[in-house]
Design goal:
The chain is an alpha/beta fold. The chain folds into 2 domains: about 1-100, Rossmann fold (3-Layer(aba) Sandwich), CATH 3.40.50; about 105-130 and about 150-215, no CATH class. It has 8 helices and 6 strands. A 4-stranded parallel sheet has the order 3-2-1-4, with helices on one face. Strands 5-6 form a two-stranded antiparallel ribbon. It binds S-adenosylmethionine. The site of S-adenosylmethionine has 17 residues, from strand 2 and helix 6. InterPro entries: MeTrfase_7 (IPR005299), SAM-dependent_MTases_sf (IPR029063). Pfam families: Methyltransf_7. This is Jasmonate O-methyltransferase.
Length: about 220
């Protein structure tokens, strides 16, 4: 059984999804008293990703997880052909598939489109369940098993949501994109964002004004 994570990144998150997947397969086989299948786990990210630590963790995963027989990495863009036809059984990806193949023209002109529109349109863009459903249906390769929108900040303790923490969260999410397009700007980015939210209540106010959604989608090959 071939399992792949697209956009695995590096560090502890790199193996989080595939480890959960392997455990779920194991549990399912136990429940139905079936022998677990031999599993091959492949991790993908762009060639610039730091795969050194990822490879070491993959070896640990192979040695500690019973049904994992083979592990490997597949560097390259998921916008290109990475695997042979019909070779994958389960593909997972977290916080990666929204990365575009290239910067939109607006960004190269230093405009951020989502902020140049009115409140209603911004909400539509940030909670695009309907739009995504239509795109998947129109394209036709997959059927939608389940789709949910979730604002991860609703579970976040407000007391933990300080300007410093929120800025580090944004840095972790966007540093590669910002550096690629704007160069060495991260120190300035951190100073500017912290300054913006340092006023009492301004971060909470901005969070309420700008909803943020994660879409979780489960698809099956049509
Ligand atoms: C925000 S990280 C998510 C990491 C991890 N999956 C997680 O949930 O914590 C996004 C990752 O997607 C990778 N990525 C972006 N575009 C990609 C592409 N076209 N092909 C492969 N990986 C890509 C980035 O290099 C980055 O490591």
């Amino acid at each position: 059984m071939m399992i792949v994570d697209l956009g695995c990144s590096t560090g502890p998150n790199a193996l989080a999804l595939v480890s959960i997947t392997v455990e779920a397969i194991h549990a399912n086989c136990l429940q139905f008293q079936q022998p677990p299948p031999e599993v091959c786990v492949l991790l993908n990210d762009l060639p610039e990703n730091d795969f050194n630590t990822v490879v070491k963790s993959l070896v640990t995963l192979r040695q500690s997880s019973d049904p994992v027989a083979v592990t490997g990495i597949t560097p390259g863009s998921f916008y290109e052909r990475l695997f042979t036809s019909e070779s994958l059984h389960l593909v997972c990806s977290s916080n990666s598939l929204h990365w575009l193949s290239k910067a939109p023209e607006d960004l190269t002109k230093n405009l951020i489109p989502a902020y140049d529109i009115d409140e209603h349109s911004r909400h539509e863009r940030l909670f695009p369940c309907k739009e995504l459903r239509e795109i998947i249906q129109e394209e036709g390769s997959f059927s939608i098993r389940e789709m949910r929108a979730h604002d991860p900040r609703t579970d976040m303790n407000n007391a933990l949501s300080t300007p410093g923490r929120f800025t580090r969260f944004l840095r972790a999410l966007f540093e590669p994109v910002l550096v690629q397009h704007f160069g060495d700007v991260m120190d300035e980015f951190v100073k500017t964002t912290e300054r913006r939210w340092v006023l009492e209540g301004s971060l909470q106010e901005e969070r309420a004004r700008c909803p943020y959604a994660m879409l979780v989608v489960s698809l099956a090959k049509a």
